[in-house]
Amino acid sequence: MKQLEVQIMGQSYLLGCPENGDARMLDAVNRVDMAMCRIRDAGKIKARDRIAVLAALNLAFELPERTPNAVPAVAATPAETTSNGGETTHPQLAALLQRLDTALGIDGRLL
Q1: More confident residue, 11 or 66
Q2: Are 32 and 11 in contact (CB under 8 A)?
Q3: Crossing angle for the helix pair 22-42 and 48-62, nearest 10 degrees?
Q4: For range 53-62, the mean pLDDT
Q5: How many structural domains comprise the chain?
């Protein structure tokens, strides 16, 4: 297994990469970097870990769209994640955020 040095949201990471997997890994890094930068640039969320979680959720929601016969995904954007006193605008996202908040505990609440 080879190693690739990449940058995600301005921070360097050394990643393990299977032989002949460079292109796929760099594509994945690019998608993650773009998703995280888009959330950061919206200006509502500053914490890198929260940005990473929201980017991961967005990418996970987009994944079924790439698969035939998939249920349509509902992606989260910083503007959609909270409204009306902190409640989420999408029931699926609300359930996911509640599960993540429970798993992270009081100190790691997402929103």
Answers
A1: 11
A2: no
A3: 120
A4: 90
A5: 1
Question: Residue 85 CB: number of other CB atoms within 10 A?
Answer: 5
Residues 48 and 97: their CA atoms lie apart, in Å, by 17
Closest by Cα among 30, 32, 51 to 41: 51
In degrees rounded to 5, what are phi and psi of residue 71? Answer: -75, 135
At residue 2, φ and ψ (nearest 5 deg) are: -95, 170
Distances (CA, A) of 26 to 4, 17, 95: 9, 10, 31
21-48 confidence digits (pLDDT tens): 999 999 999 999 999 999 999 988 889 9
Kind plus residue range of the DSSP H or E element containing 12: strand 11-17
CA–CA dist 16, 9 (Å, integer): 19
Distances (CA, A) of 49 to 9, 80, 85: 12, 18, 22
CA atoms within 13 A on the CB side of 104: 15
User: Whole-angstrom distance between the N-terminal and C-terminal Cα of the chain?
Assistant: 38
